[in-house]
């Protein structure tokens, strides 16, 4: 049986850690976690970035290609942020593993936390974020706040 609790994108539970200096507090996620053990993480803040900051996106490939060194993470000013984000993601991953996370609920569309869709080469398309990729690679299942809401809404 799986131990541990849930990992959640910190912005979904009210932390103002987004690129725009805001949070993305999600009432469904907050409700779901109310009586559950969870750990809120923001891989971009763990990379040492500030909030607000220039937004980043995947360039030239998806999260797997970034991890293999054949695609990059760049910010809106064109600066290469690949190495620092990889460091932040691995810091977050180590915390998730130490927490013995059973599942993660992450923010859709983020280049770090996206689950089904991410911004890549200037467009929103199918793909996962870098943190999601590494959690899955370590056997931790991930769903988005949208998926959580849809499932709960569908319950009779
Ligand atoms: S990296 Fe993840 S937790 Fe941090 S602001 Fe972006 S979506 Fe939220």
Characterize the structure shown.
The protein is α/β, with parallel strands linked by helices and 156 residues long. It is built from six helices and eight strands; from the N terminus they run E-H-E-H-E-H-E-H-E-E-E-H-E-H. The strands form three sheets. A four-stranded parallel β-sheet has the order 2-1-5-8. It has a two-stranded antiparallel ribbon with strand order 3-4. Helix 4 crosses helix 5 (130-137). The chain is globular. The two termini are 27 Å apart. Bound molecules: iron/sulfur cluster. Iron/sulfur cluster (SF4) binds next to helix 2.
For this entry, give a set of tags.
156 residues; alpha/beta; four-stranded parallel beta sheet; 6 helices; 33% helix; binds iron/sulfur cluster
Give the number of helices.
6
| First and last CA, distance | 27 Å
Order of helices and strands: EHEHEHEHEEEHEH
Which bin fits the share of residues in helices? 25-40%
**Overall 3D shape:** globular
Give me the secondary-structure category: alpha/beta
Low-confidence stretches: none
Query: What's the rounded overall pLDDT mean?
Result: 95
């Amino acid at each position: 049986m799986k131990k541990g609790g849930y990992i959640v994108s910190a912005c979904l539970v009210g932390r103002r850690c987004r690129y725009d200096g805001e949070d993305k507090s999600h009432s469904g996620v907050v409700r779901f976690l109310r009586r559950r053990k969870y750990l809120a993480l923001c891989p971009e803040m763990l990379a040492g970035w500030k909030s607000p900051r220039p937004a980043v996106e995947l360039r030239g490939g998806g999260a797997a290609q970034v991890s293999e060194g054949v695609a990059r993470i760049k910010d809106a000013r064109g600066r290469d942020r690949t190495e620092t984000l990889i460091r932040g993601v691995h810091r977050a991953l180590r915390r998730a593993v130490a927490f013995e996370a059973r599942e993660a609920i992450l923010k859709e569309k983020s280049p770090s936390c996206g689950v089904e869709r991410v911004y890549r080469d200037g467009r929103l398309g199918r793909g996962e974020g870098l943190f999601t990729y590494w959690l899955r690679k370590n056997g931790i299942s991930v769903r988005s706040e949208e998926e959580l809401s849809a499932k709960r809404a569908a319950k009779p």
